[in-house]
Write a structure and sequence with these properties.
The chain is mainly alpha-helical and 121 residues long. It is 62% helix and 11% strand. The chain starts with a strand and ends with a helix.
């Protein structure tokens, strides 16, 4: 019976291609499922044979460790260069989105504080 190796929710295409490539390179039979039309399911990469799932998970753990280290290194380099994205960059690029997000945060904090304020009176 097939086992899910990678849920495709918020997975970049290059990462999915890398996973497919290392599964192919190690001779692990797999298949993809497509996301649903209404976004209920995001699709995934499945390992066909139960006997291969432990090996696939070990390969996946190694890949994710390498990818994480690479991403941390790239972020650290961007911080040193000064090219890393900051809150100010986002606020300049998308001021309406930032303003609406801040208004929503204040509104939700007000809703959380409302029972306390009503009970004090």
């Amino acid at each position: 019976m097939a086992k899910l190796l990678l849920n495709m929710r918020m997975v970049p295409e290059d990462e999915a291609a890398d996973v497919r490539a290392f599964l192919d390179a190690h001779g692990i039979a797999h298949y993809d499922t497509a996301p649903s039309r209404w976004g209920i399911s995001y699709g995934g990469i499945w390992v066909r044979d139960d006997g291969d799932i432990d090996r696939a998970k070990a390969l996946m753990a190694d890949y994710q460790a390498r990818r994480g280290a690479s991403a941390r290194q790239a972020h650290a380099q961007a911080m040193r260069d000064g090219s890393a994205e900051t809150f100010a960059d986002i606020a300049r690029r998308e001021p309406l989105r930032v303003a609406l997000t801040l208004v929503a945060i204040v509104f939700l904090l007000g809703l959380v504080a409302l029972p306390v304020l009503l009970l004090r009176q």
